[in-house]
Structure prediction request, 193 residues.
Amino acid sequence: MKIIESEEDEDKKVMYKDVNMSDNSLVYYSFYAYNMIVSKYFQNIKNDFEADEIIPGVFLGSINSSYDLDVLKSKGITHIISVILGYVPAYPDDFKYLIINVLDNENNSISDVFQSCNNFINHALFEENGKVLIHCMAGRSRSATILSAYIIDTYGMNVDNVLNLLRSKRKIVEPNSSFIKQLNDYYKHRFLL
Prediction:
């Protein structure tokens, strides 16, 4: 059974997904350019791995974690989901990446990519026997939302229980109110309707 989206995706090292954003203003493009520059900068400074294993094989962390090659390899991480608009992968020859182009604001439909991310995580864990790092800038809102959707889908937990689980391992987790609403809608659609 294939759990990735297409045969073409199976061999790609870097895949990109965009979310529906009602804010296509200058802010969007400014953040995109800024993050492309910042992610290049992060590659050239010392970065400490700052992520927590939330469920077996799945880590939630900050952007710094995505640049600590030695620790990424020592933890067995093989796949990285970056939930940052304009992120540039540091090690495309070493890891498979899924880049989610999204801002952390209430005008974004992050739920557009829940299924793609779930497929990517399942493929990494169960077909490639790997481990996954999910990160945004701080490991607080966007990446926590993506991992929450995966846990909802996989374990059938409601949003409050999922967020309590994440916060028990990573205290700073706090998705924005729109992302929490989208997670609640996702849970209702998956398990209550």
Notes: The first strand starts at residue 14 and ends at 18.
